[in-house]
Amino acid sequence: MVPAGPYHLGDFLSPDELAGGVEITIDEQVVGSVLTAGTPPELTPREELFLERINQALLYAALGATSLALFLSLFLARTLTRPLHELIAATRAMAQGDLEQQVAVRSQDELGELAAAFNQMSVRLTRANELRRQMTADIAHDLRTPLTVIKGYTEALRDGDLPPATATFETIYQEAEQLNHLIDDLRTLSLADAGELTLHRRATAPQDLLERAAAAYLPQARQLGIALHVDAVPDLSPVQVDPDRLAQVIGNLVSNGLRYTPEGGRITLAARQRADGAYLIIQDTGAGIAPADLPHIFDRFYRGDAARETNEGESGLGLAIAKSLVEAHGGALSVSSTLGEGSAFVIALPAICGTV
User: Fold this and answer.
1) Global pTM?
2) pLDDT surpasses 80 at 17
C-alpha cells in the first residue's frame, strides 16, 4: 500500500472498500486495486518542520545562484568589454591620424589574439608611414637636384650670362634624363606594389639570361679592368620569366658590382639548379657591404656607404626595383657580403609560374 489520504501504511481494508476501487490485473490475475485517496493526510509537526527547512534551503540556494550568476555575468562582461573599449578607442585615435597606438594584451584567448594583431598592425602602419615620409623627402630631394641644375642653366641662357654651347645643352639633357629615369623607377615600383606590373613570361634558359647581361656589360668591364665571367651548369631547367624584366634585374646587380669592384677584380654570373627552379648568382670581389647596411640595402632610397650611391646618375631605387621584379615572378632576391671581400646576390626563380 502507498499511503495517501485517510490510508496509512499497514492499514487493512475491507472487501467493500476494495470493491470501490479499480482493479489492477496482470495476466488475468488481480494483483491490486487503485482507490481514490481524497485529501492528503495531515502532516506531523516534524514533517512540517522538515518541509519548511527544505523550502528555506531551496530559497537560499536560488538566491545564492542568482547572485553568483549576476556577479559572474558582470565580471565576464567587464572582462570582455574592457579590451573591446580599448580597441575602439585606439582605432578611433588611429582614424584621426595617431598611428602609434598600443593596447594591453590581457588574455590568451581570441580577444588577446585580436589585441596582439592590432598592436602589430599599429607598429607596421607606423613604420610604413615613417618610410612614406622619408621616401617623399628623398623623392623631393632627388627631383630638386636635377631641376635646380636645369633651372640654373636655362636662366643663365635666358639672361645671356651663359652662351649657347653643346656642352651646356648636353648637361641639361643629362639632368632631364636623370629626371626621366627617376620617374620610370617610381612608376615601376608603384605598379609592382599594386600587383599590376605586366610580365610577358616565356620559357627561358637561365644561361641565356646571364650571357645576355654579360654581353651588355662586357665592354664596360674591360674598360674598368674587371673580369666578367659566366659560370652556368649545363642542362639547367628553363624558368618561366619575362626575359626583359630579368635582364633589368641582372643588369642592375652587375652595374652595382662594376661600381664597387676595383680594377683587377672579378664578377661572376653563375646559374645553379634548385629543387623547383634555378638560382642566378651575381658575385663580385668588390668592397662588400657593411653589416649595419646589409639588412637595409633593398630599402628605397636607403643611404649606405656601399648600399646606395646617388651621385653617379643613380636614383637610389635600383635594388628595391630588382627585389620587386624578382618577387613579381614568384621568386626571391637575397644577398650575402663580407667587407673587403665582395658581395653575392642570389636570385631564386621557380621553374613554373603562372602568367600575368
Assistant:
1) 0.59
2) no
